[in-house]
Amino acid sequence: MRVTIDLMKKSTQIIDLSNVINPRVGDDDLLLPLHIVYDDNQTDMRGKDVEFLSNDPNKKNIYIAGTCNTNTPGDNLYMGNLTFRFPAGTFKADGTYDPDKTMFRIVDKETQKVISSVNVKITVMKNSLEFDFDPDKSSYDSRLETMLHDFHDKGQTMLDEIKNLNNQANSNVSGDTATTAKEAKKQADQNAGDISDLKGEVAGARGRFANMADREDTQDAAINQKESIANANTNYAALQQKNAQQDAVIATKARQDFIVDYLSQMYFQPETFENEAALKAKYPNGKPGLMITGDTGHKWLWIQGAWKDCGIYQSAGIAAGIGYSKLSENLREAFLPNVEEVSWTGKNPGYINENNGEAVSTSDYFYSDAIPVKAGEEYRVKGHTYFDGRTVILENGDGGVVQSYPDTSEDKDVNLTFTVPQNASRMIVNYRSDIPTKILKTLNYQRNGVALAGLEQFVSTSAARTYDSIDLEENSEKGYWDCKRDGAFTSNASAKASYKPIAVKPFEIYRITGKANYDAKLATLIDYNGKLIKTLPEGNTEPGTYEIVIPWNAAYLLINNFNGVPTKVEKATAFADPVKESQSNLNTLLIEFVEDNYDFASVHLSYTQPGFWDRNGGFTKIDYIDSTDKIPVKPFEIYTIDGYTYYDSNLYELLDDNDSIVTVYPNTSEDLKRYKQTFIVPANAKYLVVNHYKGKDVTLQKAIGLRKSVLPTEGKKWVAIGDSWTAVSTLGNGVDNYTNYVAKRLGLNMDNAAIGGTGYVAHNKNANDQFYNREIAADGDAYTILGSFNDVFVDGFKFGDVGNTDKLSLWGGMKATIDHIYSVKDNARIGIIAPGPWGAFNPQNGSNWDKLSMKASEVGEQYVATMKKFADYYSLPFLDLYHQSNLRPWDSDYVKKYFHGDNTHPNTEGHKQFAPIIADFVNRLL
């Protein structure tokens, strides 16, 4: 019986293993078959591992990993079937193990991230029988039988040796009979001694049998069932062979003297060289030990007769830390910089030459005064290069040039990020008077704790909201904020007016009403450096109302106003979710989302002295509670705390840089009451302090990432092929249909490959736009085809059957379509979706369809039946939306609410009716 673990973990669950497995203290290699699923569907366990964690009744921790196998009958990793092995010594204490501290965890082998976990209840039985056991009082003792077999074997061996010696004596005709007889006598004497010893052993053994008359029948029956001596000898030979194999393996292992000698050759202090050439020049024939080349910082080892570059060497931490400029581009995007602008004064016309640090006279350029800097500091300079100068010159105390940026002589705009070298002490910036230059100093980097997959999508799909208007403050000059490159301001007095930038925060929601202009957007979002992040709207200059969720890396919202069209900006302040009507603010919704979907890691609490941080921001010494050291926190990080209050303190306080209280929880004076809360760190909080009531546990956990089990399809690509039900143009740009709902639900990248009026046979004014001619992406993870009753309107249409290749038949058109998809991607995962019911074709339409001399309902049934037969014939997943869509095109009141001006095309609310069905279907394909 396999134990099923559902990674979806739709609710808190504890699996009781008592009906499956009841281990005993001291059991060896106990096996537990598992079946891993996701939302009751099979899940692929390749590349994953199962871990067992527990805390036994003696408070001893148990951790087991990497003990899964797939050689038990029924095991299949692809189907989620595997067997977990409890090694010897796992269970050292009997009793029922605490289910809150006993669980199986599913782990990604490559990243070692926890995918999901399920708590289990397990009871371990005592092993007391072993200690009260008396072999002499048992009805059967297998060891006696073993001794008997040994006696038989020894006796037979002796007889064989005597017989062999006698035969040798009889056959010796060379005149050496006397010698042979002498050897025979010697062997006989030895055998006689052995037989005497054997008699002693037999006598001793008989003592065990002396008073066992009542057990003879049992013994005889057991002995008769045992192997013959011949079989036992065969098994013994196999055992000898196995021992020989083990000896061979052991012989390859490192001995103590070898390890000591090898360690003596290791060098923990590396030898350094200017470059690779210098290393090879000194040691052309190699040398044991670690070598470092200074030009690259790489380590080199002599391996198999050649010097091998083993990558970057770092024997200690980087003194200045790893700055933004040292991160790869994709890692930089994961961090939110906290910067301050550096004030500086310009000097005479000219620029500082990077070669010698001297000023060069010119009327186009200026240079700044010397700005003090320190090694390891990080700066950003936005400005412009000069053809024979640099934007930034870093000098030492004597005025010598240490480093210049950028490493080019091109005349162009630059946006530099760099770390000050060790021997630089001042910085000079070259700048042009007609191009704004900005110098920013990095203070720190804030990892946005909630800027992870799923959150922005969640916020953007919240339902009703309450908005407050934002007063727009006009700039002193007319113009607009350029959306094309970096959000720069462009003066233009004739057509547009712009407003001062609005400071924004991640995940705020704004509603903007107005009109975009042909060369600017209604709204532009930029980061702290002025880098363009997003524009609104995309590809549309008509008046309208648009909603935007502020990305995590945006700092400012810039608004453009088309003259004559009023512009309005509103900020969402409250949220109403129809499913959660009692929750009215964004933080509540976000916290609930995180609690349901994110993994948390425990934060170690290091207690200082007895006392607490009170809500006024002061520390009070007292005997009853302890306070933690201040824990550094960052804006938007999410924590969960569980503990007890004290009568005049809070469970926790969030402090700013000055130790002033930002937030307390709970704001009450109740004594010894338990509270549990998940909270988001405010923007101005720097430290967290936890008060701990002695004698009561308190736990603090931090959200560390979205569980893979929430969206196992996250980031995969879905190609949706179809007709007007799938096409964007049917409902209009920006209006969601089922493809949008499915993509959001599964976290997919969706490629809409649909054209209205088409099908497996039908085309729409273009003879090459049937499904089998459709241009589709070659990198899809799943391909679905939805449609289409458009086919039955085509002259000469027929349903077709197995083997039909006529493209005027449904069968032939479907065959051509899947062949086309396979030609683009030979291992494509394809799903066939029957069209939903139309007003013209549905199970309740009994009108005649003269084109095929059938009733309309019969046309629909035959069309869907042919599709189903085709899908079965070619082993393709099939979804019968015709009979399972939840749509009612025969109901006029329903049509008015859920269809798009006719009884054929659902509107966006109608698409919501069947989108979850398609989402489940697509999920099975991935």
Strand and helix layout:
Blueprint: E1 3-6, E2 14-16, E3 30-38, E4 41-42, E5 48-55, E6 61-65, E7 68-69, E8 81-86, E9 95-96, E10 103-108, E11 114-121, E12 123-124, H1 142-171, H2 177-209, H3 216-224, H4 229-251, H5 256-264, E13 271-273, H6 276-282, E14 291-293, E15 298-303, E16 306-312, H7 329-332, E17 335-341, E18 346-349, E19 351-352, E20 359-360, E21 365-368, E22 371-372, E23 378-384, E24 392-395, E25 401-405, E26 413-419, E27 426-432, E28 438-447, H8 455-460, E29 464-470, E30 479-481, E31 489-491, E32 496-498, E33 502-503, E34 509-514, E35 523-526, E36 532-536, E37 544-549, E38 556-562, E39 568-576, H9 586-597, E40 598-602, E41 607-613, E42 619-628, E43 631-632, E44 638-644, E45 652-655, E46 661-665, E47 674-680, E48 687-693, E49 699-706, E50 717-722, H10 728-731, H11 738-746, E51 749-754, E52 782-786, H12 810-824, E53 830-833, E54 848-849, E55 854-855, H13 856-873, E56 878-879, H14 881-884, H15 892-898, H16 908-925
Parallel strand pairs: 1-3, 2-11, 13-14, 50-51, 50-52, 52-53, 53-56
Antiparallel strand pairs: 3-4, 3-8, 5-6, 5-10, 7-8, 9-12, 10-11, 14-15, 15-16, 17-28, 18-21, 19-20, 21-27, 22-27, 23-26, 23-28, 24-25, 24-27, 29-39, 30-31, 32-38, 33-38, 34-37, 34-39, 35-36, 35-38, 40-49, 41-42, 42-48, 43-48, 44-47, 44-49, 45-46, 45-48, 54-55
